[in-house]
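Why run this: before we spend reagent on co-expression, it is cheaper to look at a predicted model of the complex and decide which construct boundaries make sense. The entries below are exactly what would go into the expression plan.
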Amino acid sequence: MLEVRGLTKRFGGLTAVAELSFSIVQGEIIGIFGPNGSGKTTLLNLVAGLARPTSGVILWQGTNIAGRQAHQIAAAGLVKTFQNPQLFPELTALEHLLIAGHLALKRRLGWQRLATLFRHAQASQTLAHRAREVLALCRLDAAREARAAELSYGEEKMLGVAMGLMCEPQLLLLDEPASGPGAEEIANLERVLRDLKREGMTLCVIDHKVGFLRQLADRAISLHHGAKIAEGTPEEVLRNPSVVSAYLGRAHAAI
Amino acid sequence: MKRLAGTALVAAALLALPLATQSDFVLTILVFAFLQGMLAVSFNLVFGYAGQLSMFHAAAFGIGAYATHLFGKHLGVGYWGGVVLAAALVAAISVVVGAICFRFRLREFYFAVVTLAFSEMARLTVLNWNSMTNGSLGINLQERPIDGTLAWYYVALGALAITLVVCWRLVHSWMGRAFVAIRLNDELGDTLGINVFRYKLVAFTAGSIMAAFAGSLYAYFLGSLEPGLLSIDTSLGIIAMVLLGGRRAVAAPVLGALVLTALPHLIHFSAEIRSLVYGAILIFSILVMPQGIYGAAAQLIRRHA
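The model came back. Tokens follow.
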């Protein structure tokens, strides 16, 4: 469903992503890992429209979306979460999800949603109902009325995932969901991602350590200096000598 | 339910007020306060909800006022025809100004400065287009589309009520949520599929249209047009009303408009000292009540509940 060909991003003299090609098929969990600074976040930003590629093609369901704006890409079903949780200060978890329901409402009602501005509509109740479901799915029920500032780091990250889900994406891109939160919260995250996979969601998860992805991912890609150095099952990629040397000694500690 | 009952009570009190006081003085102040309130409430849609500090609101107000008269006179559409055409003109100008500012992603201070520049352009046009606007002398409006202070009282109250209802519905809808998302974190809003450019433009244009209606009414109640309507003083006055009244509730700026319209008439000093006292009260209340009168009152009620 997603095919990336020859994707390159240069920041001045630095090449963050170099001639990268890979594809993602429907229903899989793909893990992308590499040491810090290997271009993982830049790659997701390019795909999600938060940065413009220097060159290359990003085919999403057959259409090149390279260089489109983030909201257009999100509307096409490709949604990204942030490594450092991005939230709306002052608002509660539930309010976050209602905002994130923007696209779902747009998809369901089209221009008719303008009519809902001036009379009560079933659609807004459906939206609130869906928001509660997503909170339950993400194990965030208890935090429903909590404001962004009152959430733990793990809850903040999970709320990012929940907002992504409210967009009803076909492919969810997760930027280091497991870096930062405690062990219990990571186990929780893993359960949530497995639930999503069971529901048929396609996920692309990036992480700088592999432990978390080893069990979860169907397929893995390893990046180093913005280029792909290995691809295969997580186990195959981990055994790949160039991956081991990319991590140098640090690999053993990280894995 | 409580809120609905409260709103109904306030509405009934305002509708019945002319029965209690026949004073032309009191009703006149209230008409000015309602029309200024309309201006402040519509500004707050752009500023308090969508987070854009527009300095173009005075221009929308003044263009609305001038255009109502000029369309009515030169196209022969009468006062109400002029009101509608003036609103359409302001909408068109706002779309252009907003599109330029938002396309170049002007934020905060930069957005304020550029909209101020556009507002000054509008003021200078009005000031120098003598054949149309009579320049700095302004125009005495002879027509009386609405006659008598009592009639004005109900028209102004009705116009304010419509503004409040429209803003309330917008703010408490999916579109209002998009506005808030833009104010609090527009990059996140963007990745969630919110077209930031579009909804900034919608908020800006909707606010300007309401300001144009306020201008059409205000000038005719005043009985004259002058370039000062479009000046930075008008913009600063609007900001003061919103900061004093409160930003986080649709109706809160009306409180600021009431206080700031009535205050100069309640302070019996010479003109120079009066503006000093006025300024001091404004600074003091904003320092003491950062959330405005509305925020302070809400906090007081919560503490005693």
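Chain B is about 80% helix and 0% strand. The mean pLDDT of chain B is 93. Bring this page to Monday's planning discussion.
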